[in-house]
Amino acid sequence: MTHRRHRRERGAAAVEMAIVLPLLLLITGGIVDLGRMYLGEILVTNAARDGARMASLKAYPVSDIVTRAQSATSGITPFVAASVTVTVNPNPATGPTTCTPDPATTVPVATVTVKADNFRWMILDAVPRLLGATINPPTISATASMQC
């Protein structure tokens, strides 16, 4: 009697695996994609902090600050389709940065904004494409201000 029951359930495990495996792979891919985005957020935030720290010292030209912030985001290049943009405020035309007082507190502040456009999803972008849809790529940005 038990032999017949096992014979009827013989392919059940394969069918269950065929149903569960795509869902499991999708969840795992989503976790990997979110981890990559979190890494990108950390890299951009650290780049903004490094740039703001350098700008607050008043001894560096804006080009050096931008180069420093962009080199701090070098690990994000496989994740974004566009380049990383860096904005330094205040931004003198020549010479080193000069801090300007913040209108709210009258304390001199240097501000650096780092933005990475068009983050590339690995898995979360492929699934909607199979269904004929698209996901707008997110922009990762961070702003850091430091007192001069």
Short descriptors:
4-stranded antiparallel beta sheet, 4 strands, 148 residues, 17% strand, rod-shaped, 4 helices, alpha+beta
Write the layout of secondary structure elements.
Blueprint: H1 2-8, H2 12-56, H3 62-72, E1 84-89, E2 100-101, E3 108-116, H4 126-130, E4 140-147
Helix pairs in contact: 2-3
Description of the structure:
This protein has helices at 2-8, 12-56, 62-72, 126-130, and strands at 84-89, 100-101, 108-116, 140-147. The protein has one domain. The protein is 46% helix and 17% strand. It is an alpha+beta fold. Strands 1, 2, 3 and 4 form a four-stranded antiparallel beta sheet that branches. The longest helix has 45 residues, at 12-56.
Q: Strand tally, please? A: 4
Number of continuous helical runs: 4
**Termini distance?**
84 Å
**What order do the helices and strands follow?**
HHHEEEHE
Q: What is the residue-averaged pLDDT?
A: 81
Strand content: 15-25%
The helix content is 40-55%
Q: How much is the radius of gyration in Å?
A: 25 Å
By secondary-structure content and strand pairing, the structural class works out as alpha+beta
The backbone outline, from C-alpha atoms, is rod-shaped
pLDDT < 50 stretches: none
Counting structural domains, the number is 1
Describe the oligomeric state of these chains in a short phrase.
Answer: single chain
Main β-sheet description: 4 strands, antiparallel
